[in-house]
Amino acid sequence: MPEKGTVAFLGLGHMGGPMAANLVRAGYAVVGFDVVPAAVQTAREHGVPVAASADGAVAGADVVVTMFPSGGHVLDAYRGDAGQPGLLAAAPPGTMFLDCSTINVDEAREAARLAGEAGHRSVDAPVSGGVVGAEAATLTFMAGGEAQDFESVRPLLEVMGKRVVHCGGHGAGQAAKICNNLILGVSMIAVSEAFVLGEKLGLSHQALFDVASAASGQCWALTTNCPVPGPVPASPANRDYQPGFTAALMAKDLNLAVNALNSTGVAGQMGALAARIYDTFAAEGGAGRDFSAIITDIRGSAEPAAAGTTAAAIGTDATGRSRTTAAHDDGSPE
Predict the structure, then answer these.
(1) Strand 121-124 to strand 127-128: parallel, antiparallel, or no bridges (unpaired)?
(2) Which phi and psi angles does 195 have, rounded to 5°?
(3) In angstroms, rounded to a whole number, what is the distance separating the alpha carbons of residues 228 and 236?
(4) What is the DSSP-derived secondary structure letter of residue 289?
(5) Which residue from 182, 259, 299, 309 lies 20 to 30 Å from 199 (Cα-Cα)?
(6) pTM for this predicted structure
(7) CA–CA dist 226, 218 (Å, integer)
(8) Catalytic amino acids?
(9) 288 and 182 in contact (C-beta within 8 Å)?
(10) With bands split at pLDDT 50, 70 and 90, how would you rate the model's confidence at 129?
């Protein structure tokens, strides 16, 4: 790719719009496109020229960046449909296709195969960092593809992010992304459960944070995206869970992880449970809230302590199964 070459950027939503604007500010010739009029208008307001069609955007591009909701959107856009030429047919020979969507690993590999058969090159580079990272150009990119192709797009990725990692061949970027978000989704649920438990046990949020953030419970879900207001002023909990990363997107990514767990035969019980928890939360009104708002569901589902009890003692019965006995004020079992 020539230095400061022409970039077609397709998908100008909450993530893609700021990413494209950062490329414009860095001196790249960007031509954007989106099917949503509001996204087009916002992109134009941030200095991104917008084409009238997707094939018009890619016609003279050195690099085609896609940021789409799903793998189906990526593959359909590459192939074309209903008699319309796809992006692969519309782009000049040898164009670099850089997909920053988060999709199934198998879909990423199929996209790479299609691009190669059409005479193009490709890299999958999903992102982590949310809307805040997209706006601030502090995203992390996890890239998959041939080493020389990765190096050719590294300068462009470094404009949009602060960390760029080559994870391996085609699909490896997607693999890294879903593994990372599997950790994130499970850990946010665990952190949220711990805070609700702390509330029940009389711990202040700050006290629990001060201990866990400096002990073995330390994790990103706690120290950066803390699900309760106060301890981390920049976390969405202080803004009524206005999203940096929505619960709907977390549900999507966890289901991608479950697909990968199933296809590889990994017995990932925590990942599957986390996916079900976020699916339910998103379906019952939490879709547009930050994924840390899962704590509100956990808190709302908590049962009040039994009257006259001060603690719960957990033991095992004669069969070895877990049992719970509530200790009364006089010390006798219930």
Answers:
(1) unpaired
(2) -70, -40
(3) 9
(4) S
(5) 182
(6) 0.84
(7) 11
(8) 177
(9) no
(10) confident
